Structure formats: C-alpha cells, structure tokens
Amino acid sequence: MSSPILEEQEMYLKVLYEVHIVDPESPIRTSQVAEAMSVTAASASEMLKRLGVKGFVNHIPYKGVTLTENGIEAASRVKRRESLMEVFLVSLLDFDGDIKDAACRLEHALTDELEYSIDRLLGFPSHAPDGAEIPRINREINFGIKGVLLPLNVLPEGMVSSIELLVIDSTDEKTLKDMNIEVGMKVEKTNSDFLVNGLKIQLSNNMQSRILVRTE
Predict the structure, then answer these.
(1) pLDDT, tens digit, for every residue of 9-35?
(2) Looking at 71, 90, 118, which one is the last position of a domain?
(3) Rounded CA separation 77/135 (Å)
(4) pTM above 0.70?
C-alpha cells in the first residue's frame, strides 16, 4: 500500500504540473522547481528524489525530471483542487483577500468526495478565476453509497442524510433558521420535497445546491 502524499509533496507536484503544461516535452530542471518553491537547489533536489521513489517523476541525468503518468494524475489533482477552491472563494464567498494563498491552504484539506461535492456545487467549472483551465479527472460516484458527501439537490429519493455544511450568505442563513434548518439535522428526500427532522419543507434548487449533506 502506497504512503499518503504529504502537503509539502503536494506543493512540489503542483509546481511540476504548472511547469509541465507550459512545455510538456521538455524535462523540468531542478533550478526551475527551486525558484518556484523559493528553496535551495539542494532542497528541491532532495524532494524530487522522494517523488521519484513514489513513482511520480523520472530522473533524466543532467537534464532534470519528467512527470510519470501517476505523477501527472497526482499533480493535476492538486492543481485542480486549488483551482476549485479559487472559484469557490470568488463565486460563493465573495472573498476579497489573497485568493491564491487561501485556496492553497484549503486545497490540502479536500477529500475526493468533498472535492466532487464542491465541483458540482459550483456547476462543474472549466476555468479558474484567472482564466486558466481547471484540470479534469475521470471519476464516477454512486450517490446511493452511504457516507458520501453531496449537495442536497442530488440526494436520491428515500435516502436519509445529515446536514454537514451550509454554503450560504447571511440572508439565506436567516431563511434557514426561520425554517429550523441547521447543521446536524436529518434530511430525507421525498417525491417533491424534503423531510427535515420529520417536518416537510420545500427549498429552491439553488438553496438545495448550497446545502451539503452526508448520506446514511
């Protein structure tokens, strides 16, 4: 069983991906990585060796490294998560701070299921706020599986879930509070509406898409 990818390794993989997509045919020099990461060449070289052991890069003597197929997959996933968090911060939270820095911090906390839920919540965006294309990945998720995190609007009929996250502004928050809807409550999808703690309610599709639930 392979060891998990550490946060520092994810940062290097993201840099490798960003250099790779500019010139996919050329090896990536250690000096390029060191400059992008603001570290010494020795530190960059040591990390590239570790990534090589994990099977993410191939070393080419005196030239640098190239991403392996597994490396491209892992690196593009890290970059994808950063891009999704940038869209999330700009589109839903209207965040006016350092978008890149905040997204970088958040990307490492995403699980596969949370990444998918946020992707769907955002409408499967194809580009980041700066216009860069968001890497795509091939994945299928069975919404009927227990323990999956997903937006309320795709909850299968008859399935019970619990509210885990509300991605809403202050106005919508008040609306939900008036309806006695909050994190931790049980939700079941019926034919045309929902049962929240046993009470029947109706929500707009937009509101449903901003309520993340975990299936049970």
Answers:
(1) 999 999 999 999 999 999 999 999 999
(2) 71
(3) 7
(4) no
